[in-house]
Amino acid sequence: MENQPTSKLVTVPTNTLDIIKLDDRFLADALALSNEANWNQVADDWAMMITAGEAVGFQDISGRLIASALTLPYGDQFGWISMVIVTQLRQKQGLATRLLNSCIQRLEDKHLVPLLDATPAGENVYRPLGFLPHFGFERWEHEAVEYISQTATQRNNKTGMLEKFDPSEIIEKDRNIFGGDRRTIIESLIERSFEFAAVAENNGGFLLGRNGRTATHIGPISANSPKTAIALLDHALTTLSGKVFIDACNHQNKFIVQLEKYGFRRQRPFLRMAKGYTNKLGQPEKMFAMAGPELG
Domains of the chain by range and CATH? Predict the structure, then answer.
């Protein structure tokens, strides 16, 4: 009997693939990538980021999106790098490195300092490229926030909350505290978190967030004191149910103690890093929770 031909997976060498720009036509494929990675993004997140920044990626020979990355310009000083994803079967082939270098080059060509939030594994990649650590935070999660004692949340919720607020004031406060202008992102988060967003009446702290694939993400939370930050959180928790993620800053000890009291548990750490930049980023003392590693 003659030998039968065996089927082989045909792949194109990674160094021959061209980086392509992603637009709204790639939303479904991009979402499939983040779903495969078990990340929390939904289609609205990808649409928001593609609109606000520049997304790029690679396609395989069939036209399927196999890798992604994006940059978000935050004013005239900083640019954010995120959503560096490679489908599992094409990992460790240099695709992520090519996309990352492309993002760095694109930002530096615009005289923007590249920023990102790194996992411990990512930190080992970014440090040799010149990224410097600034501060850490951790993702905390709660499986069912509706079971947090209402008495506890209401007892802490002593800071008055504005029922109506001017979005432009939130955008300006975020610019000052975060350290960059992410107007398009904040506008989107205000719209998506209208059911639980909160603004402190007296000292201007605020809380925003968004729905996610597996959990509601609370953040950013910015405030002048832990008391205000906790009151903002309590206000949000009284309206939410199900799983919640909060990316809480490691230096906000009183806030973290409150998360522990409510039954939140640590999931994984992140480190904010900036390429070749040693000055303080924004006002970390007023940052209690991040908008997410993909947004800053």
Answer: 15-111 (3.40.630.30), 138-289 (3.40.630.90)
Phi first, then psi, for residue 225 (nearest 5°) are -155, 155
pTM: 0.91
Strands 265-275 and 113-118: antiparallel
Radius of gyration from C-alpha coordinates of the chain: 20
Tens-level pLDDT at each residue, the chain (296 residues): 334 333 333 344 556 799 999 999 999 999 999 999 999 999 999 999 999 999 999 999 999 999 999 999 999 999 999 999 999 999 999 999 999 999 999 999 999 999 999 999 999 999 999 999 999 999 999 999 999 976 555 555 544 665 567 899 999 999 999 999 999 999 999 999 999 999 988 777 999 999 999 999 999 999 999 999 999 999 999 999 999 999 999 999 999 999 999 999 999 999 999 999 999 999 999 999 999 999 99
DSSP 160-213: -B-SS--HHHHHHHHHHHHSS--HHHHHHHHHHTTTT-EEBTTT--EEEEE--S
- In degrees and rounded to multiples of 5, residue 205 shows phi and psi of -65, 155
Q: Which residues pair with 21 in a beta bridge?
A: 56
